Amino acid sequence: MDATQQKGSLKQLRGPFDGLGFLISFISVVKVRGVVSFITLLLAYNNCSPRSSQSPNDFISHYERNGGKERVIVFVHGIYADARTGWTCPRTKAYWPQLILSDGAFADYDVYVAGYKSSPFGNHMTIDEIATNLSNRLQSDRVFSHPEVVFVCHSVGGMIVQRLLLSNPGYADRVPLIFFFSTPQSGTDLAKLAHLLSSDPVLDALLPGNENAYLLNLENEFKTMYHKTKKFCAYETIPTMGMVIADRLSATRLCDETPIPINSNHVDVVKPCDKNADSYIALKNAVEKNSIVSRPHAAEDDAAKSK
Question: What tens digit of pLDDT does each residue of 188-244 get?
């Protein structure tokens, strides 16, 4: 085959990929990759473990410690996780809400783990509805009877907490800080691709870009109403099946403190395997530096001194 024939053959091969054809083919490849990432994300969140081996507390909100402390730390998991697997290290089986129970730095804190059902193939509630449902549970469990409430949020859990607090402006003085771990404040590309497999309404709120009015309004309202609350952020640095779910810009958009990079993927960023893990230390430092009540019964002691 001479040069002219080779050129003609190459042109025929390239023909289907010119212009729109190339764009469609490229999008198809990206969609396949995104779907694979979405499925991998589901498996990673659930540790590929059978649900039958888990306890009821894996799915409902509960206290890990309810000792009448003046402070409480509330863990709120992300999308397609639960109150157990969302915080458990696959390697050591360490469970973050229980890790802090034996740490003297958290001795003055009760520990509460929020749970809500999150399934890509069965959820029909929006972020606002999940927040309202969770608020009802927190009220029943008297979480905000504590003078100080610290939230630890992963991924979509951060948005749920923002909406919950916006619906309850009276809580503002009780929340000294919120720690957002890989919360995609400006959305994520994975949400567009996940729609190929799921009609979960939560995904609508995660669509990326400035056209997402929901996230823009959520951000503006929260910054205005909760401007006194310190907002800490940490972000993943390792892709999940080739995709970064919450990149640095998206995960740190709401922060007013120096963001912390965590050498982990989106799923494992909130699964410290021990007390030396970066995520564990980041939370510990934030809590120690930002406390409303400097010690138990401080308000009563100060009132007594003033008499």
Answer: 877 777 767 777 777 877 878 776 888 889 989 999 999 999 999 999 999 987 888
**Whole-structure pTM value:** 0.79
Residue-level pLDDT at 114:
96
Burial of 224 (0-12, 13-18, 19+ CB in 10 A): exposed
**Helix, strand or coil for residue 167?**
coil
| Strand residues in the chain grouped as ranges (E) | 62-65, 71-76, 109-114, 148-154, 177-181, 230-236, 260-262
Q: What is the rounded distance in angstroms from the CA atom of residue 212 to the CA atom of residue 234?
A: 23
Q: CA dist 219 to 81, 141, 190, Å?
A: 24, 28, 20
β-sheet bridge partners, residue 181: 154, 234
Domains of the chain with CATH codes: 51-289 (3.40.50.1820)
Share of the chain above pLDDT 90, in %: 53
DSSP code per residue over 5-30: HHHHHHHHHHGGGSHHHHHHHHHHHH
Contact 62, 115 (CB under 8 A): yes
